[in-house]
Amino acid sequence: MITAQGNKATSGKRLFFALVLTVSISLWLHPAFAAPSPELWPRWQANQPENTLAIDHSPWDIVLKKYLLTKHPSGINRFRYKAVSAADRQALKSYLERLQTVNVSSLNQNEQKAYWINLYNALTVQVILDHYPVKSIMDINISQGMFSRGPWDAKLLKIKGEEVSLNDIEHRILRPIYRDNRLHYALNCASLGCPNLQPQAYTAANLEQLLVKGATDYINHPRGVGMVDGKLQVSNIYKWFQVDFGDTEQGVIRHLLPYLDQVGKAQGAKGKLIDTVRSYNKGLRYEYDWNVNAAD
Q1: What global pTM score does this model have?
Q2: Which DSSP string do the residues of 35-52 spell out, in sequence order?
Q3: How far is residue 155's CA from residue 162's CA, in Å, rounded to a whole number?
């Protein structure tokens, strides 16, 4: 005999599981990207300041110059994934294999920084190539975990005996070791909402120049900063990683202003936006486009 109390318990369980299923489906269809906090992986802190050894990134440089479209009407650098030849796929694979044999700890810090940026970006391009055609990197579900989206947690590399993921490079190595918020403009996630993939490999020599260029280009493009319906709309990067940009919305605005000024002084059309951003005191609006940065 089923009692009224038993009916209530059964009904409650059904309701609970229905809610779990609904939330699960909602997360799958409309994923909220949660950025990991920077947690130092001490293994990668060691460096040798006196070492002048420069890593050869020319294979990656060649791929970028061949397949990255830098004059797209959208103002966003696009990659011609469909056009990449079998020979260049192999060259990219060999480059990534060689980087995994480098004794990273023996490099000076600028060489290390360039190494990790190039490794991240080249690996991301390879991941897209391995799954192309694909509408979004978020659809490449090779990370472990029921609700994991994208490839970022997959251990795709092995360096000095350690399995390393894209998230490890960004959140356990680059962010906590270098504490340079301009790194967010250097790492490319193969998406239209992301800062531009630069048309050349990073090196110790061009590192500072490319970091400034990446920040300036992004902040002066509508996907980075713009006014929409009277509100200041910025990239979701400034929400996900707000801790790296002053940890407040006003901190984000203070970060943006110097880069807006650099272009604003040369281009009068930017002047109004600079003035608006400088005096803005409302909440920010956030946007991001996860569509793949393909030129095809």
Answers
A1: 0.88
A2: PPPP---GGG----TT--
A3: 9
How does residue 188 score in pLDDT terms, banded at 50, 70 and 90?
very high
Instruction: Report d(CA 214, CA 159) in Å as an integer.
Output: 27
- Residue 165 has phi, psi (to 5 degrees) of -110, 170
Mean pLDDT in residue range 129-145: 94
Condensed to tens digits (0 to 9), the pLDDT of residues 220-242 reads 999 999 999 999 999 999 999 99
**Residues linked to residue 191 through DSSP beta bridges, in sequence order:** 292
Q: Which two tokens stand for residue 249?
A: 């919305």
Q: Where are the domains of the chain?
A: 42-287
Separation of alpha carbons 153 and 164, rounded Å? 9
In SS3 terms, 111-158 reads as: HHHHHHHHHHHHHHHHHHHHHCCCCEHHHCCCCCCCCCCCCCCCEEEE
